[in-house]
Every structure is written in structure tokens, then in C-alpha cells.
Amino acid sequence: MKYPRLPLSVAALLLTMAAEAGAVASAELYQNQAYTYGRFEARVRFAAGDGVISSFFLWKPGSEMPGTFWNELDFEKLGADCRLQTNPLYGLPVGDHSEIEPIEADLCGEYHTYMFEWTPSYIAYLVDGVEVRRDGEEVAVAFAENAAAGMQIHFNIWPGDATFGGNFDPAILPIQQYISWVQYSSFAGGAFTLEWREEFDGPALPSGWAVGNWASPKNLSTHQPANAEFMAGLSVLSLTADDATGFAGAPPPDPAAGTPPEPDASAGAGAGGASGAGIDGEVPPLGENYGGADSGGDPGGSSAGNSGSSTAGAQSGAPTGAAGTSAVAPTGSPPPASSDGSCSHVVSSTARPKGTAWLALVGAALVARLRRRRRLETARPG
């Protein structure tokens, strides 16, 4: 494939982007199976630090594709003060509906339980069993009609900038996000039923999970598999210097591990709902499995292989399509460059190339992004 000749100004920008993305290594962990209506819960200690985005979110694979309705639900830690942002991102084109939740708890110094309740009639956000936000029928319909095949569970940590996340300083590295456990309960007949729970009690990537290897939103880091580790009953996601990946030391224990709180009475189920049985993700054709974000980052999202229930294990490597296989995302096209805005998720499917090959790929991605932006601006009403 030949890449178009680029103006000097664009080439200079690409050099800057490549240098920035190569300076910091981030991490993303995700469930490679999609699930429909239910409760999606995780016990998380978010990462501290100004300019550091630390998140737990749900993502509809393929949301980034042209002409596709976007679906994403976010818990995101932002800023030096560790404030919590919630956001249902949806639409064609995607629309931002973020709000900061007034929570006094220490989100970066302690573990807390975060929950999405996704039903046909509402979507609720809960922290430690207390509902902090509820979106009604309008939002629920946008997800019911456009995410019928389900969404995947994702966690990531990455550097932002003054436009989103704060003022990132690499001198604060390394820093970590810790995940104690994750569980999913299906929703049917007005009731929630626990389907599986992941305790991260093994030393390697558990069955049913995969790790990212693509550029993060803002293109200020690249997700590295070495920065997603499993120890002491925890998943540890690190943000490090590019040449100092991994985590050394003992992660802080979760004193409430194994005892998730029950939701309060305000979190009652809506009427009806389909079963939350998992839907196996599909690997897109070669060249189409690059990826996306919430509002503002360039899109992405594809699942890597498929699996049944999520249980602790030690499997890794290239996806084979066999049940229970977890892996780094499959190879394919380079990720598009990210733009401004709130961004939890960018899924591409290739590790970062080196030297001139990397610049050529980034150049092609930038050109594709500019073309996509022009199409969106042309299609936007008014």
C-alpha cells in the first residue's frame, strides 16, 4: 500500500506525535466477550496524578466504524483531585453527556466498587452501592436499539492533557491502577442473576481477557502488554516510562476483597429485559479492527477471539477462536490518531512499528482521520 505525500507541516506534526507516543507506556485490560443487559461491577483503586485518566467502561465493539452508532458507558477518574466523571456516549455522530459526580470518597487512595446497571428502561451508575446517576428511557433506548449484541468490559490508564484530564508530567511516573475483582450479572424478568466473577487469583492473564497494544487517546502513550500484570489477587495496570514497563513491589491490598456491597433500594430493576448471556465478539476483517474512544478520541474496538466464562488462568498468545483463549489484540491496520476530548478507549490491532515504518503508518492514520472528520462535518445537520 502506498501512502500519500504529506505537507512538511503535517510531517513535522507526525514526528512530534510519534515521539510523544513513544515516551510513555500505558495499559488496557478488557473482556473479549460482549454482554447484554445486566450489572457490570468492578472493585477498583484508580490511579492518582494530574493529567492521568484511569477508567472502568463498557464499549460496543465497532462503534468507531463509519456509519455506525456509537455506544459506550464510562467511569473515569480525572485530575489531580481524583474527581469522578460518568458518561453515556452514544449517537451518530457520538455525543458527549458527561458529568462530574460529587463524591467525597478517596477514589485514588482506596478501593471502591463501581457498577453499571444496564436495563431496557434505564442505565444507572453506582459507587459502593449508592446510585450517583440514572439515565432514563431516552438513553436506555439508544443502547437497547443500537447495542443489542452487547458491550465489552474495559479498564485502562493513560496520559491526558490540559483539554482533558489535567496537566500531565512524566516525572510522576510510574503510577498504577488496581483492580480487585470484576463480576457480571445478567438481567431477565426484572431480576439480576450473577453469571461470573473474576478474582484475578492467578499470576497471568486470565481466560476470557485480553490486553491492549495500541496508541492511547491523545496519542501521548502506547498501551504495552507488559504494563498489565496479575499479582496478589489483583490486576495491576501501570503507566510508566516507555523503557521502564512493569510493576515492582507489593500492590496495596483491598481490605474488602470478596465482599461486594449490595446496591441500595434506589437501584431497583426496571421492567422486563433480555437475558445477559454473553455474545462472542467477532474479529473484524484485516484492516478494519482499529479503534475507538468515547467523545473525542478516535474510535476503536474489536474483540480478540472468544471465550466462555471468565475464570482465573494463565493463558496468553495469539487468539485462536477457541473458547477460553485470551490474547493481545490481533494484528491489522494501525490506529488512527486521536483528537481532543474525553477518551477512554482506543482499540487498534497492531503493536507500534519502529522508525520510518511507524511514521508512515501514523501519517496514513492522520490522513484517514482528516478524511473522516470532513465526512462527519459534511453530514452534520445545520
Mean pLDDT: 75
Total count of strands: 19
Reading off the top of the CATH hierarchy, the class is best stated as Mainly Beta
Could you name the ranges where pLDDT drops below 50 across 5 or more consecutive residues? Answer: 1-21, 265-343, 345-362, 378-382
Helix content: 10-25%
Query: Number of domains in the coordinates?
Result: 1
Radius of gyration: 19 Å
CATH architecture annotation:
Sandwich
Helix tally equals: 3
Determine the oligomeric state from the structure.
single chain
Summarize the main sheet: 17 strands, mixed
Distance between the first and last residues' Cα: 37 Å
Helices and strands in order, then pairings?
Layout (H helix, E strand, L loop, with lengths): L7 H16 E8 L1 E2 L3 E8 L6 E8 L10 E9 L4 E9 L2 E2 L3 E3 L10 E7 L4 E5 L2 E6 L1 H10 L5 E8 L15 E14 L2 E8 L10 E3 L10 E2 L4 E4 L2 E8 L37 E2 L74 H25 L3
Parallel strand pairs: 1-16
Antiparallel strand pairs: 1-12, 1-15, 1-18, 2-19, 3-9, 3-13, 4-5, 4-12, 5-6, 6-7, 6-8, 9-10, 10-11, 13-14, 13-18, 17-18
Helix pairs in contact: 1-3
Structural notes for this entry:
The chain has 382 residues and is of the alpha+beta class. It has one domain (8-379): Jelly Rolls, CATH 2.60.120. It is built from three helices and 19 strands. The chain has a 17-stranded mixed sheet that branches. The protein has a two-stranded antiparallel sheet with strand order 2-19. A hairpin with a 4-residue loop joins strand 5 and strand 6. Helix 1 (8-23) packs across helix 3 (355-379). The longest helix has 25 residues, at 355-379. It is globular, with a radius of gyration of 19 Å.
